[in-house]
Amino acid sequence: MPFGLCNAPATFQRCMMSIFSDMVGESLEVFMDDFSIFGTTFDACLNELQKVLKRALCWDT
Asked: What residues pair up with 30 in beta bridges, in sequence order?
């Protein structure tokens, strides 16, 4: 995303919400480039983090 565009932050936010729409509210919160992953246990959080990172790598290509 080029810097200097007035709508770049909003566009990026919409993209992140679209990519992670099924996870938002369940185990993930997204605000711009910040991701908060939550779960009932530490292992659950690690599992959700693994899912997020796998999905992010798939969208990178």
From this structure: 35
Q: CA 61, CA 58: separation in Å to the nearest integer? A: 6
Task: Tell me the one-letter amino acid at 2.
Answer: P
Q: What is the pLDDT of residues 6-54, one digit of tens each?
A: 777 888 888 888 888 899 998 999 888 788 999 999 999 999 999 999 9
pTM for the whole structure: 0.71
Contact 25, 36 (CB under 8 A): no
Please state, in angstroms and rounded to a whole number, the distance separating the CA atoms of residues 48 and 27: 7
Q: Taking a C-beta distance cutoff of 8 angstroms, is the pair 29, 36 a contact? A: yes
